[in-house]
Amino acid sequence: MARNAARKSSSAGLLPWLSLALLLLIADQFTKVLIMGYYQLGDSTYVTSFFNIVRAHNTGAAFSFLASASGWQRWFFTGIGVAAAVFIVWMLKSHAGQKLFSLAMACILGGAIGNVIDRVLHGYVVDFLDFHWRGWHFPAFNVADSAITLGAICLILDELLRVRRAR
Q: What is the model's pTM?
């Protein structure tokens, strides 16, 4: 009896975080479909003096790491993304009551799955947010990358707050 109640409680606590991850995944995929429908590779639209919408393809990982490899990186990064997603769901199930930690995990989960979908469907990740300033150019990125970055920031903040509480 107690086990069943604990399982139901764990599943109920997991649902909001999986819903957030799904929402981020849908936002990521929707924006990528728009970009692929309206832009050819390399097309760009000026938005402000520091921001453009572009269509770029990244066959590598963050900052185009291993992008020039011979193609094996597609399945390597797909595997890492799938393994990370499984691990994150397990972590969410174990720690669903820790709000900041779970927020971080949900953001990373939604972003990781979004980029895995791109790799499986296209062989590359579709990037389109392009920031630049006075000759400096940040690599183009997407909603999934933003969610992963937000999740990483929340993880760091969660750990700093945990250490502070422990003192």
A: 0.85
By C-alpha distance, which of 6, 15, 14, 29 is closest to 116?
29
To the nearest 5 percent, what fractions of the chain are helix, strand and coil?
65, 15, 20
Q: Can 145 be counted among the known catalytic residues?
A: yes
The domain in which residue 30 lies consists of 2-166
Write down the catalytic residue from 28, 127, 130, 158.
Answer: 127
Segment 45-69, tens digit of pLDDT: 999 999 999 999 987 666 555 555 5
CA distances from 111 to 82, 141, 150 (A): 12, 11, 10
- Rounded CA-CA distance 97/112 in Å is 22
Query: Terminus-to-terminus CA distance in the chain, angstroms?
Result: 38
* Active-site annotation holder among 28, 118, 130, 145: 145
Indicate the number of domains in the chain: 1
